[in-house]
Design a protein that fits this description.
Low-confidence stretches: none
Strand content: 5-15%
Shape: globular
Structural class: alpha+beta
Bound molecules: zinc ion
Number of helices: 3
Number of strands: 3
Number of domains: 1
Strand order of the largest sheet: 2-1-3
Order of helices and strands: HEEEHH
Length: 73
């Protein structure tokens, strides 16, 4: 499943309350999702500021950034 990260970044930045951040892999996940679709983790951060920053970061770097930024804590 491919997604346009720039489009997602814009969407998330406009409505950060609807998203959360996976504490394990750093993916931006829909708040309705019970687990992370990328790594199946169920620990999340729902700090809007972190969600937006992460979304913008992903949008500007592309999805390869995830493997280089796995120390997000
Ligand atoms: Zn994850």
């Amino acid at each position: 499943m491919k997604q346009d990260y720039k489009e997602i970044a814009t969407t998330v930045a406009n409505d950060p309350a609807s998203y959360k951040l996976c504490s394990v892999c750093g993916a931006v996940v829909d708040k309705q999702a019970p687990t992370c679709p990328d790594c199946m983790a169920y620990r999340f951060t729902d700090d809007s500021e972190q969600v937006v920053n992460r979304a913008i970061d992903l949008g500007s770097r592309g999805q390869n950034a995830v493997s280089h930024l796995d120390t997000l804590e």
